[in-house]
Every structure is written in C-alpha cells, then in structure tokens.
C-alpha cells in the first residue's frame, strides 16, 4: 500500500533500487543532490542535473518536462553520502511560469522497479518559490528512509544550493539553466504571436497570450497556469532518454522522443521515434482570404494557423479555438462575478445605514444597484455573443475541412476514406463545450501515439440529462464507445502498424464487438475466461519487457526475427471480472510502462466494481484518461479553471460508415501481409 506523505513525514525504504516519478502541470527541471549527515553538498560532482545527468547511484532527466523519472541505486552511492535530495525547479529565462504557485501542485512518488508505489507526496502550498526540495532519502542507523520536505526557495536553484552549503552554487545553477536552454534549442520554437490581420483573439478584456507567455491573466481567472491542454498529459520520461513532447499546440515537441515504432523493418534497426514534422520554426499560414474591412472581424478560413502542412495548421487552429473559447468564457464569468459583487456591496451599504432601510430613498438605492448590475451583465453578454458568433463562424468552416483523424463520424470525409500511408499528428476522441457556448463544439484532439491509456467509464456519470441510469445499458454504450475509438485508431494508422487485442472474460461485449470481429481486424478472437485473460496479459507484458530492455540497452535491432513492431492496443471489458491478483498487477504494469514502448490500454470498467482492491488500484485509474459514453462535465481545465463537458465521438445510429471503414482496413492489412 502506498504511503501518502504529508510535509515532514517519513517512511522506511525496503528496496535499494528505486525510481522517483515526478509529475507537474508545466515543464520543470529535476536534479538530485547528494549530501553528508549535516545536509551539506561537498561539490558540484555531488549534484546530478541536466548538464551532468548521471552520478554514482543517480540518473536524472536531461531536459525540462512535465513528467520525469529519476533512477536511484542506494547501494551504489558513495559511503560519505547520507542524504539524497530531490530538487525541482522552474526553467529560468523562458516564457513559462516563474513561480510554483502558478502551476498545478507537483506530485512525487517513490516506486520500486516493478512500478509499485512505496510513498508519494503532493507539494501543496507553494507560492512564490521557483525551486523546491521535494523529497529527501536519508540513511539512519544503516537503514534508508524517505521524508517529505517541500522546502521552497524564491531565489531559485542558486538560493537552494547555497542554503545546502555548496560554494559554487550560483555557477552550478547557471550551468543547469544553460543545459536546459540547449535542450530547448533543439526543439521547435513556439509560433510567433499573430499579427492584427491574423489574430483570432476576441474583443474582450482577455489577452492574446496566456500569462505564462508574457501576457496577463484573464480577469477572474485563478492565476497564471501552464499552457497545457486539460487532457493531454505527457508520459513519464525514461532515464537516459529525452523528455517527451508537450501535447499543447504551440509548444515545442522533442524531435527525439522515444515513443513510437515506425513500422516493421526487414533486418534493419527498429525506429521507435515518432516521425516528427518539425525541425525549424513553421511557416506562417498562406494568405487565403482578403483582409477584413476596418472595424470588422476577419473572415474565418480553415487552416489559418501556423504549420508545415494543412494537417498541422488545422491542428493548431483547433486548439486556437479552444484557447479563444476558454478566454472569452473566463472574461464573461469574471464580468458577471464583478457585477454581482458590486451589487452586493452597494446593497450592503444601503442596508448598513438605518436611515435608508425603509422609505423611498432606500428603494431608489436598491433599484439603482440592480440596474447597474443588469447593465454590466448585459454588456458582458453582448461581448460574449460577439465572440461566440465569430467562433461559430470559424467552427463552421473548420469542421468540414478536417481530415479523417480529426473529423466526426458523420463527416462526409469518411465516405472517401482510404488507408493512410503515414501516422497523423493527432486523433479526435470527442468534443468539448462550455455551458456559456452550448452551440459550439471544439474537437478534442490528442497527440499520437497515445501518451496514456483510456478509461471508458461504464459507471454512473454526471450526465446532464440523467439518461442511461441502467447499468446494463451504460455498459453496452461504453463498449460501443470503445469500439468506435478503436476503429478510429485502426483507421488512422497505416496498414500493419496497429494491432488490437480484446479481453472480454464473460463475453458480455460480444454484440458491440461485432464490427471488429466480423471484419477480421482483431489480432485474435476476444479472450474469454480467466485463462484467456492470463494468456493475453502474459504476451503483452513480455513484449513490453523485451522492447524496454532493447531500447534502454541501445540494441533495438537485436529483437527476435519477425517481432511485431506495430502499436498494440488492449481493450479490457468488465474489469475486474476474470482477473486474479497476478493479472491485476500485470494490468497496472501495462498502464504505466506500456505507452512508452508501444502497448496501450483501453479499459471499459466501473470503478466501483473494483472497490474491493482498495487503494491498490488508485495508480491504475490515475494513469488513464477518463472518458464517458455520455456527455459529462468531468474534464478539468487547469489553464483557466473551466470544467469542460466532454461528448464522445459515436457513430450515428443506422450508419454503415464504421463497417465500411473497418472493411477497408482489413483489406489493406491483407495486402500488407
């Protein structure tokens, strides 16, 4: 059971070889400092950092990233070392946030090599600090323990290292900043701000740039937060490998991130890197529309964002629309809150004076306060409607222009579908909307390859209409949603580069799975019973182990002949039915380690049904992106604090498009084989 530590609490460590996983809401820098019994760092060689990522018994990430893994071997540490401090810092000199109070609370976990969490700590209460000692591993009477520290420093790494007695603290902090800057220089820079002619930012009080990009926070927004999508979470980085890309549009992907097999090869080395499309700043969008008349909004054009290809421009434009809708909704909510607070204050002043509580004077003051409130709300609503009209017009031209990977199932582009020759940038998993703009649907795009597993929640959700309260109907709809997502994944990958496995222990998903089974796109019939569960999980965990060792050892070309290098998707229905303790541990392993090595998980489950496992499965659910088969406002936006309503991408009732697409996928696979 994981020990969830609070500040100052400690927990014994029974293993010498550990991993420390760090997850934050923005790219951060990690380091590990060795110190003696008094907590003093003797020299720069006692610090592992991006410029010198390996030290005896330590290995840290080489770049700033939102997720990190630090490798620690306590038995390999020098004899004089009695403490290992895990240091977190925000990159200096960049356009990102400059204080931890502006980002989501970092989460740090100490795990064994099997992935099981030993202790975890969430660093809450940070404000102006830009560097922090998160955890400390320390030796006491021959035994090692971990302590939650959470000591922050507003002066950054220089102040932190100085406080720990390092004489060359400022020089080392500068060297770390330079190493991080060199890593960023190898990535694509963010596109420049739009000019007045191409700027889609709305005529509101909100800025065109986010607070972490040099602008100011929207009125009423809960402070600046990192530019990260509300659902695109980066995978943990592997020790010795570059940090993964950011899923957020306009941020710089790492060209060398190791996440994606490119496909089978004949005798040559296997390339597990995603085929990046950028190695320099993308060009501006081509001039496809005449400039707008003075005082009039620009005419929306599909693909008016920056990018090397139309696909990339549409991807960036969709997330530009997401940003615009988030900003204008935040401005409207802020204006309404201000109007209400002003009216409350004026009414309080009226009531505080006994002479104005009764009579015509008091009534007039109250009416004046309500009139000013109505005027302010009307002005805010007028600005909101103007912005929504422009966004609606943009959505009307963007939606029909989307390629199959980004398009809804009812888009005519699917009727002209042909199996692709290369992997697209992203995949549509549904739509997002806000209550203030119910008529606008923003496509929910996630980068490929999938950076985390998917969980289709078949339990009771917060559906606005209260439908599908019957558990059987909900379970069937959840499985149909999973099939639609799996079919879309099969459709957007080239032939032979995506394989789907299904575990359905009780056979309850037989009818929703019919399109996949009938067209023959599955690698094998759905696995039934406990024996089927054990067989599929054993094969996939063995595959992850093999690829993990080959990639980390730099011998990817030594995999067995005929090894299937395609991406693997495992669909699990009715969890935990048919799963024993061993199978549960294997499933957790696939969820945590699989995505980085080509194995992805899609769970169709009701979390309450697995409540008997207690907190053992909490890491599993946290590692998955929760989706629902019905509209549900469960997706939190850490950027401006909105709760977005998610709507799944389902095939229209009575449509044969799914069958047609899967038939073409199966035919292309036959030719490929």
Describe this structure in words.
The chain contains ten helices and 21 strands. It has 673 residues and is of the alpha+beta class. The strands form three sheets. Strands 1, 2, 3, 4, 5, 6, 7, 8, 9, 10, 11 and 12 form a twelve-stranded mixed sheet that branches. A five-stranded parallel sheet has the order 16-17-18-15-19, with helices on both faces. Strand 9 and strand 10 (117-122) form a beta hairpin.
How would you describe this structure in keywords?
single chain; 673 residues; alpha+beta; 5-stranded parallel β-sheet
How would you sum up this structure in a few lines?
This protein has 673 residues and is α+β, with helices and mostly antiparallel strands. The protein has helices spanning 156-163, 169-185, 310-352, 360-398, 471-492, 514-519, 529-552, 581-593, 618-623, 657-672, and strands spanning 3-5, 10-12, 17-35, 47-48, 54-55, 58-59, 65-73, 83-89, 107-111, 117-122, 131-140, 143-153, 426-434, 437-447, 453-457, 498-503, 567-575, 599-605, 624-627, 632-636, 643-648. Strands 1, 2, 3, 4, 5, 6, 7, 8, 9, 10, 11 and 12 form a twelve-stranded mixed beta sheet that branches.
Mean pLDDT: 80
Percent of residues in helices: 25-40%
Largest sheet: 12 strands, mixed
Rg, alpha carbons = 27 Å
Unreliable residue runs? 185-280
Q: In total, how many beta strands?
A: 21
Global morphology: globular
Structural class: alpha+beta
Total count of helical runs of at least 4 residues: 10
How far is the first residue's CA from the last residue's CA?
A: 46 Å
């Amino acid at each position: 059971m994981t020990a969830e530590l609070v500040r100052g609490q400690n927990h014994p460590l029974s293993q010498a070889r550990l991993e420390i996983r760090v997850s934050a809401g923005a790219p951060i820098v990690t380091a590990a400092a060795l110190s003696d019994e008094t907590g003093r760092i003797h020299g720069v060689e006692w610090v592992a950092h991006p410029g010198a990522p390996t030290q005896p018994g330590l290995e840290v990430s080489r770049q700033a990233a939102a997720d990190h893994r630090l490798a620690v071997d306590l038995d390999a540490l020098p004899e004089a070392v009695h403490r290992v401090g895990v240091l977190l810092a925000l990159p200096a000199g960049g356009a990102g946030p400059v204080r931890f109070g502006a980002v989501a609370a970092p989460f740090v976990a100490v795990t064994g090599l099997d992935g099981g969490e030993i202790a975890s700590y969430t660093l809450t209460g940070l404000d102006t600090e830009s560097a922090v000692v998160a955890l400390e591993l320390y030796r006491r009477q021959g035994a090692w323990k971990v302590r939650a520290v959470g000591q922050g420093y507003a002066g950054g790494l220089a102040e932190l290292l100085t406080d720990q007695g390092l004489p060359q603290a400022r020089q080392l902090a500068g060297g770390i900043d330079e190493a991080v800057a060199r890593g960023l220089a190898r990535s694509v820079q963010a596109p420049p701000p739009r000019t007045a002619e191409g700027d889609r930012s709305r005529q509101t009080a909100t800025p065109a740039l986010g607070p972490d990009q040099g602008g100011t926070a929207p009125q009423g927004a809960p402070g600046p937060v990192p530019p990260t999508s509300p659902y695109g979470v980066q995978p943990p980085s592997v020790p010795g490998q570059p940090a993964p890309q950011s899923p957020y549009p306009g941020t710089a992907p790492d060209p060398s991130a190791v996440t994606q097999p490119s496909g089978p090869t004949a005798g040559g080395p296997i390339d597990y890197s995603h085929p990046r499309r950028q190695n320099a700043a993308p060009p501006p969008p081509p001039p496809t529309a005449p400039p707008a008349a003075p005082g009039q909004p620009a005419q929306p054009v599909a693909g008016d964002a920056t990018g090397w290809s139309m696909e990339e421009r549409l991807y960036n434009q969709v997330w530009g629309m997401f940003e615009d809708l988030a900003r204008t909704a935040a401005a409207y909510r802020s204006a309404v809150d201000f109007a209400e607070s002003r009216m409350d204050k004026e009414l309080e002043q009226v009531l505080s004076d006994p002479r104005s509580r009764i009579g015509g004077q008091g009534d007039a003051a109250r009416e004046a306060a309500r009139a000013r409130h109505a005027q302010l709300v009307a002005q805010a609503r007028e600005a909101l409607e103007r912005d929504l009209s422009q966004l609606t017009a943009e959505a009307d031209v963007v939606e029909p222009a989307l390629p199959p990977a980004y398009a809804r199932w009812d888009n005519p582009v699917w009727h002209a579908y042909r199996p692709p020759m290369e992997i697209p940038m992203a995949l549509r998993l549904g739509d997002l909307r806000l209550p203030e703009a119910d008529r606008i649907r923003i496509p929910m795009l996630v980068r490929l390859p999938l950076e985390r597993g998917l969980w289709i929640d078949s339990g009771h959700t917060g559906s606005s209409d209260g439908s599908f309260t019957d558990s059987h109907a909900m379970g069937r709809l959840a499985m149909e949603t999973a099939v639609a997502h799996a079919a879309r994944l099969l459709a957007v990958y080239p032939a032979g580069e995506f394989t789907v496995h299904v575990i359905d222990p009780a056979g309850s998903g037989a009818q929703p799975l019919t399109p996949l089974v009938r067209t023959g796109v599955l690698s094998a019939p759905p696995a039934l019973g406990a024996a089927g569960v054990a067989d599929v999980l054993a094969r996939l965990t063995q595959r992850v182990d093999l690829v993990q060792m080959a990639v980390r050892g730099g011998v990817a070309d030594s995999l067995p002949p005929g090894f299937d290098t395609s991406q693997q998707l495992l669909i699990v229905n009715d969890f935990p039915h048919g799963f024993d303790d061993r199978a549960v541990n294997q499933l957790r392993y696939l969820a945590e380690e699989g995505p980085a090595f080509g194995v992805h998980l899609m769970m169709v489950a009701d979390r309450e049904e697995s409540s008997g496992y207690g907190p053992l499965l909490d890491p599993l659910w946290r590692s998955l992106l929760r989706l629902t088969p019905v509209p549900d406002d469960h997706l939190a936006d850490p950027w401006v604090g909105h709760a977005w309503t998610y709507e799944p991408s389902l095939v229209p009732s009575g449509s044969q498009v799914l069958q047609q697409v899967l038939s073409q996928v199966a035919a292309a696979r036959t030719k490929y084989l």
